[in-house]
Write a structure and sequence with these properties.
alpha/beta; six-stranded parallel β-sheet; two-stranded antiparallel ribbon; 6 helices; 17% strand
């Protein structure tokens, strides 16, 4: 990967690492709080584990789940994924009920050393994809200034950006760009 930084090119010790993962996992149709296949979570574990082994201060994970079209839809919350990730990682995972703004920024500002943080679904906000739909199904478009604020907030959540979301790497969504980060690299799934 000439010209591209990989995770192994970075000094991670003491740094907060924002990793864009693809936790768009299948859920039980009758009970969406049950994850029916953990393959995507398992696939992200080598990148997460590497960061923690290299003494990153914290790993901050962000993802989407489903197609909520820029609105909060409870069945697409990442809260059940946090519980599943906790079991797979074998350590506590702090779930943050927001992915940007003051709540997320405060949760990520000075996390406990070695912690794993999972943010709420990025696609609950129209600023992630740039478009969506309102409750009546009418198409909506994000205002450029709101997209800028969204991206600026994402840039405050960590010191380093890592893209490990292979399945969505081709999309120009806000969380896929790593805008505002001096150090950006690809994780092991994207490498």
């Amino acid at each position: 990967m000439a010209g591209k930084m990989t995770l192994k090119d970075l000094e991670l010790e003491g740094k907060r690492v924002l990793i864009r993962v693809d936790f768009n996992v299948p859920q039980d149709k009758a009970d969406p709080t049950k994850i029916t296949n953990t393959q995507r979570i398992d696939g992200a574990m080598p990148t997460i584990k590497y960061c923690l082994d290299k003494k990153a201060k914290a790993v901050v994970l962000c993802s989407h789940l489903g197609r909520p079209d820029g609105s909060k839809v409870d069945k697409y919350s990442l809260a059940p994924v946090a519980k599943c990730l906790e079991t797979i990682a074998g350590k506590p995972v702090k779930f943050v009920p927001e992915c940007f703004g003051p709540v997320a920024e405060e949760a990520c500002k000075d996390p406990e050393a070695g912690s794993i943080i999972l943010l709420e679904n990025l696609r609950f906000h129209v600023e992630e994809e740039g478009k969506g739909a309102d409750s009546a199904g009418n198409k909506t478009k994000a205002k450029p200034e709101d997209v800028t604020k969204f991206r600026e907030s994402l840039a405050k959540l960590a010191d380093i950006y890592v893209n490990d979301a292979f399945g969505t790497a081709h999309r120009a969504h806000s969380s896929m760009l790593g805008e505002g980060y001096e150090q950006r690299a690809c994780g092991f799934l994207v490498e």
